[in-house]
Amino acid sequence: MATHKLLLLPGDGIGPEVMAEVQRVIDWLNAQGIAKFETEQGLVGGSAYDAHKVSISEADMAKATAADAVIFGAVGGPKWDSVPYEVRPEAGLLRLRKDLGLFANLRPAVCYPALAEASSLKRDVVEGLDIMIVRELTGGVYFGEPKTITDLGNGQKRAVDTQVYDTYEIERIGRVAFDLARKRKNKVTSMEKRNVMKSGVLWNEVMTQVHAREYKDVTLEHQLADSGGMNLVKAPKQFDVIVTDNLFGDMLSDIAAMLTGSLGMLPSASLGEVDSKTRKRRSLFEPVHGSAPDIAGKGLANPIAMISSFGMALRYSFDMGDLADKVDAAIAAVLASGLRTADIKSEGTTPASTSQMGEAILKEL
Amino acid sequence: MATHKLLLLPGDGIGPEVMAEVQRVIDWLNAQGIAKFETEQGLVGGSAYDAHKVSISEADMAKATAADAVIFGAVGGPKWDSVPYEVRPEAGLLRLRKDLGLFANLRPAVCYPALAEASSLKRDVVEGLDIMIVRELTGGVYFGEPKTITDLGNGQKRAVDTQVYDTYEIERIGRVAFDLARKRKNKVTSMEKRNVMKSGVLWNEVMTQVHAREYKDVTLEHQLADSGGMNLVKAPKQFDVIVTDNLFGDMLSDIAAMLTGSLGMLPSASLGEVDSKTRKRRSLFEPVHGSAPDIAGKGLANPIAMISSFGMALRYSFDMGDLADKVDAAIAAVLASGLRTADIKSEGTTPASTSQMGEAILKEL
Ligand SMILES: CC(C)[C@H](C(=O)O)[C@@H](O)C(=O)O
Ligand SMILES: CC(C)[C@H](C(=O)O)[C@@H](O)C(=O)O
């Protein structure tokens, strides 16, 4: 059996608590001989800053580069609100994405039937919702240069951010979206602001070309990002796969996540290009939720998004789709049994702490 | 009585139909001697392109500059999808905003009690919602240079857009937001992505300074734009005034509008700086909805957003707050009577065409 090397980066806030539940799943898989994972731990975000005055150390970056997959918790919190911009907690995550070349961010927004009531939207609008948002993750305004604040004198400063996209960046994220659509409902909606942004014009043009050249069997639709956001709120079930740039993807995937009423349940995968020789790709898996410093250390956090992110690692990095299906089924079964962490509790359900929820999922497995 | 000069720019799609209803209100106010409006008409968007191959003619720009207020319908439609970028319908609107210096875009998101059921959100989440989104309108990625597509050879192109903000631009939009909050619930939420964008860092810093210097009596809160979007969907009533940049404002105001279930009802005002001598400011008023080409010319459009935008002109440009209140009350009364255009119809209400709705509001007045 092949040994898979994992780097666990719990990060800040509730990161360590929810990562502990993934660690238990890994230990159990190893003990049962179902898989062979070798894990290392590292620091990222505020915890790395506290230890080394950086958002991630060179040693941990080297571990991330050597790992077969990185499992990431969450970063940030008010404690680090005034650390210098270059070493703020988020910088560690952004460096991992950029240096590992993780250009494709997959964010499923699924409404668990047991949780439809937890959404602020009407049940019939979100029940059965199953969208995949494919967000470009290493380009756009996140990394474009210049990115500066200049003192102009007279008490005036000028801030500049730059959105840059090249044809190949749009092509490769397009292919990820079309490939995913083929295994789903065969529809891709591309979102940009071509009526205002040149990057939107190019985005639209390249998506249209990739579709015409390689994916005629998939339905391609274009929406402006602002009306796309509206449609997400109005009638989200019209979507299957949404493909969009880094910044619009940040906004739209958070909104899609909130629609489901299951923010504490949603995983994400960030993938690099497939190496033509080894057929491997770099990857990082993280929950969509943040570090929730207000509830950290109280056993209140929901570990499902984190465990489900590990499930995505099994599926997308280790070709263990069957095992991933079992993880998903275990989560669904525990929810169906009525167990709930505080964020998803409702009348008639059984309260569970972070570790009780992790324990129950492990038992199901 | 002072004469007020209005330029009416109906634009494309349903623009002319809904503008016709505003024209009736104006004619009536003139006939009754309640006010004295002098109106001119112009072309903008696709209709200007069809007539002059531009998105707005120099002659109409001159009329707009000379007018006391511009009343704008909507622009765009599939008919002009392939016209050159520089003369696309939206370019006319963007030029009006930029050349008239309309930096402050006010977008109220109000949930009419009679329409709470039309929202995709649960009634208790949106009932009574009353948010004011203050969007910066002449800066950011909409107008920053460079804004280019370059051919790199090898079939590769590079698209660049530039987000630029200077201190004074953030200060003046901040003041508009704080001033409005003082007349409302005294709370401003500023939204940006300071964890990723330098313009977000400067935005946050300047808002904090303006607040500390001039508006200590108002509550100021900061949210990241992605979690702000989430919170809008989860619990929108936590907000009073939201102030944000041009692109985030585009996205967030559309989402806020959709929450109310009343997209066809929401007006907007775009205001310039107050002239220190004349105490006047340039202004443009437009509905939040678009040109809806699919229903154009069928008498199906809801004229309320357009009439309500004219109401905002009365309030913000002509100091006729009492008359504006009467317009608002007339709209509310007609809705309470059960009259509905197709977009807001529900069981037990009376269907109305565009002109029947306009007529009914006029009768109420
Ligand atoms: C933490 C932050 C830098 C990050 C982003 O903006 O990409 C987060 O919001 C996300 O969506 O993963
Ligand atoms: C028509 C378009 C250019 C415009 C914008 O992006 O500002 C519209 O979406 C709006 O919100 O007024």
TrEMBL record, chains A, B:
Q: State where NAD(+) binds.
A: 77-90, 290-302
Q: Which domain of life is it from?
A: Bacteria
Question: What's an example GO cellular component term for this entry?
Answer: cytosol
The record's subcellular location field reads: Cytoplasm
Question: Pathway, per Swiss-Prot/TrEMBL?
Answer: Amino-acid biosynthesis; L-leucine biosynthesis; L-leucine from 3-methyl-2-oxobutanoate: step 3/4
Instruction: Please indicate if the UniProt record lists Cytoplasm as a keyword.
Output: yes
- Please name the InterPro entries in this protein's record: IsoCit/isopropylmalate_DH_CS, IsoPropMal-DH-like_dom, Isopropylmalate_DH
Single Gene Ontology BP annotation: L-leucine biosynthetic process
Which parts of the sequence belong to the Isopropylmalate dehydrogenase-like domain? 5-361
Which residues of the sequence carry a binding annotation for substrate? R97, R107, R135, D226
Q: Which residues bind Mg(2+)?
A: D226, D250, D254
* UniProt keyword list: Amino-acid biosynthesis, Branched-chain amino acid biosynthesis, Cytoplasm, Leucine biosynthesis, Magnesium, Manganese, Metal-binding, NAD, Oxidoreductase
Cofactor or coenzyme needed:
Mg(2+); Mn(2+)
Which reactions are catalysed by this chain? (2R,3S)-3-isopropylmalate + NAD(+) = 4-methyl-2-oxopentanoate + CO2 + NADH
Q: What is its EC number?
A: 1.1.1.85
Q: Looking at its record, which EC class is this enzyme? A: oxidoreductase
The job of this chain, per UniProt, is described as:
Catalyzes the oxidation of 3-carboxy-2-hydroxy-4-methylpentanoate (3-isopropylmalate) to 3-carboxy-4-methyl-2-oxopentanoate. The product decarboxylates to 4-methyl-2 oxopentanoate.
Know the name of this protein? 3-isopropylmalate dehydrogenase
Provenance organism: Bradyrhizobium macuxiense
